């Protein structure tokens, strides 16, 4: 059975080394995780915008949460792209991500106590993902 060079990067020979395949898969998986975190922040921001539309919180508070969340995602994306993550013992930067995202949630809960319980439930989700 011969390997198809167009679909099997190991069989491609000089174009890619065998040890680069797992590294590329790991980078792709990290980017997928980063995209899911950004999606989560988007959904949370839309939910907070609904609270703002109902008059429970200010629109500035919802926007600030969204900006902080997407800034966090952008930071980890840049760290991934420049190769910082690859040089760490935990290339997923799990502890840093849980700490930063947890801090955003707790700070927002303190700043907007009207939605504090909802945001603190999100903290359990962040901690659960950090555990795995």
Describe this structure in words.
The protein has 132 residues and is mainly α. It has one domain. The chain is built from 4 helices and no strands. The longest helix is centred in the first third of the chain and has 34 residues, at 20-53. The chain is elongated and about 55 Å long.
Q: Give me the number of helical elements.
A: 4
**Which class best fits the helix and strand makeup?**
mainly alpha
Strand content: under 5%
Helix content: 55-70%
Query: Could you name the ranges where pLDDT drops below 50 across 5 or more consecutive residues?
Result: none
Count structural domains: 1
Distance between the termini: 38 Å
User: Which term fits the overall shape?
Assistant: elongated
The largest pleated sheet is described as: none
Topology as a string of helices (H) and strands (E): HHHH
Number of strands: 0
Q: What is the typical, i.e. mean, pLDDT?
A: 87
Provide the gyration radius in Å.
19 Å
């Amino acid at each position: 059975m011969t390997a198809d060079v167009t679909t099997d990067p190991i069989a491609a020979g000089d174009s890619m080394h065998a040890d680069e395949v797992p590294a590329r898969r790991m980078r792709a998986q990290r980017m997928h995780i980063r995209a899911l975190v950004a999606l989560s922040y988007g959904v949370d921001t839309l939910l907070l915008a609904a609270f703002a539309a109902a008059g429970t919180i200010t629109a500035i508070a919802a926007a600030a949460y969204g900006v902080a969340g997407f800034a966090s995602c952008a930071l980890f994306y840049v760290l991934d792209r420049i190769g910082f993550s690859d040089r760490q013992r935990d290339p997923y930067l799990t502890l840093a991500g849980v700490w930063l995202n947890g801090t955003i949630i707790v700070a927002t809960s303190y700043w907007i106590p009207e939605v504090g319980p909802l945001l603190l439930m999100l903290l359990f989700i962040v901690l659960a993902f950090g555990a795995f």
